[in-house]
Amino acid sequence: MRKQGIIVFLLAFALFAVQTAAFGADLAGGKPGGKTKSNKKDPALLVFPGKDTVQKSDFEYVYQKNNGGWDAVKSHTQAQFKEYLALYINFKRKVLEAEANGLQNSEAFKTEFEGYRKQLAQPYLVDKSSQEELVHEAYDRGKELVSATHILINCGLDATPEDSMRAYKKIMAIRDSIVNNGKDFSEMAVRHSTDPSAKSNKGDLGYFSAFDMVYPFETGAFNTKVGEVSKPVRSSFGYHIIKVMDRVPNTGKKTVAHIIIRVGAQYTAKTEDQAKTMIAEIYQKLKAGADWNEICEKYSDDPNTAKKGGSLGQGRLIPEMETIKRKLGAGDFSEPFTTTFGHHILKVTEVEPIKSFEEAAPELKTRIARDARSTISRERLIARVKKEYNYQQQNDGIAKLVKAIDDQGAAGIYVKGFWKPADSLHKALYNLPVYTIGDGNQKKTGTVRNYIDWYVTAHKGYDGATTQQVTDKLFPMFVEQEILNYEEQQLPKKHREYRELLKEYRDGILLFTLTEDKVWRKAVEDTTGLKKYYNDN
To answer: What gap in Å lies between CA 143 and CA 154, rounded to an integer?
Structure first.
C-alpha cells in the first residue's frame, strides 16, 4: 500500500504539472468544475489503481470549497495548488486504507452515516418557494399585534367524518346567530365555547402576533378585518370562529416583570381590601423612586420570581396583562390592576426592537421548521414530486386489504393501531400494487405489504372508527412518507452540493474511525510507551 501510494503520489504530481495551467485558468475565470465550451473533457487528476479515480472537476470543487470559494481562489498560485493537493492525496490514501479494512461495512459506521444522511437531506425536502413565502409572511405578521376573541367547538384531528361534520355545523350555527341575528359574541362564547377559559374571559385572547397561536388560528385572525367574524377555522383543537377587536403595530419583543399581592390565609393580605391597600402603597413607593428589585423581593407573593426582580421573560401572558404590556415602554411600570390571580403591577424591563428581515430570517426559518407551517412546504413538495415522477395510485389492493381485515373480524384491533397480519390469510394480498412512481430503472412499485409494514410501526389509533375510515386517514400518511423517501433517494443525482457533502461526511467518518483505531487507541493502550514518554519528558 505504501509503495503503491508513493507511485500514485509521483504520478499525480507529474499529471498535475501538465494540467495545472488549465486548472489555474479555470479557477481564475471562476468556472466551476472546468465545465466550459473550451474544455469539455474532465480528465482524471488522481488515479489509485483498482481503488478510486479523482476527476479534475471533483478536485477543483473540493479545493474552492475549502479555500473560500471560486472568487477567492482565482489568484492562487501553483504552489498553493500543489500544497493542497499533497494534503488531499494523503487524505484519500487514509480513506482508501479505511475501506481496505472494511470499516464502511461495520454496523457502527452504517448507523452513524445514516443519521448524518437523514439530517443533511432535510433542507432539500422542502419546497423552497413555499419556505420563502412563509418566512416573509411570518416576518410581516410579526410587525403587528392582533387582539381577538374566539369561540371553540372541540373536534380532534382524529375525529370521524361524522363527528367533524357535527362540530362544523354547530360552529356555523353559532356564527349565523352572531352575524345574521345580532347575538353578542362574548355572550355566545360563555354559553357555547368549549375553551375552558371562556367562562371567565368570554373568549378574549388579548394581543398576539406570529407564532403565538397555532398556525391555522393565527392565519384566520390575521386574515380577518377588525370588527368582523371569521368563517370557521380548523385547528388541532377543533373549529373556531374569531372576532378581531384591534390591530396595532408591534413595537418590539418585550421582557416583563411583575409584583403580585395575593389574598389568603397564607399571605400578608387576608382580604381584598387589604390587598388593594398594599398594592396601592407599593405603587406609591415605586413612583417615589424605590428600587423595583428590593420592593419585589420584600412584598411580591410570587415565590418563583420575587427574588429575580419578578421576571416573567418574553413569553405570552394572560390577556389582561398582554393588553397592559402593549402600552408600556422600556422601564415603564403600570398602575395597579387585578386579575383572577391577584393584584399586580407590571413593568417592562427591556424592549428588543423589530429586527430587519435579513437579521430575522434565519431564526424564522428555524421556527417555521418546528411549526405547523412546515406542513405547507412539505405538502407542496409532495405534490411536485408526484407530478415530476408520474405518481399513480392503485386503490384495488388497499380495498381488498380493508375487506380482508373486516372479514377476519379484526377491525377493532386494526383501528386502535395494534393489528398484525396473519400470513395465512393475507399472503395473497402482499404483492398487490398500491402505487407506482418513476419510470424505467427508477420506477418503484409500492405494495400492500409495504403499507402493512408501515402500519405495524406507526401504531396510530382511532377509536370508534371503521376499518375504511382509519385506512382513509392512514394511507395518505404512508404515501407521504414513501414520496419523501423516493425524493430523498434522488437527491444525490439532483444536487451536487448534497452529493459532495454526503461524500465528505462518509470519508470523514471513515478517517476518524481509522485514526481512532490506529493512532488514538493504540497510544492509550501502549502503557510501556506512555511510561517511557513520561520518564523521558
So the answer is: 31
Whole-number Cα distances in Å, 299 to 173, 312, 435, 474? 49, 16, 68, 56
**What's the CA gap between 69 and 73, in Å, rounded?**
7
Instruction: Express each pLDDT in 188-218 by its tens digit.
Output: 999 999 999 999 899 999 999 999 999 999 9
Long-range CB pairs of 40-46 (<8 Å, 24+ gap) are 43/19, 44/15, 45/12, 45/15, 45/16, 45/19, 46/8, 46/12, 46/15, 46/88, 46/89, 46/92
Contacts of 241 (CB under 8 A, 6+ apart): 150, 151, 171, 174, 175, 178, 229, 230, 231, 232, 233
pTM of the model: 0.65
pLDDT tens-digit series, residues 447-506: 999 999 999 998 787 877 899 989 998 999 999 999 999 999 999 999 988 998 999 999
Count Cβ atoms within 10 A of the Cβ of residue 181 and give its class: 0-12 exposed, 13-18 middle, 19 or more buried: exposed
- Residues 351, 369: Cα–Cα separation, whole Å: 26
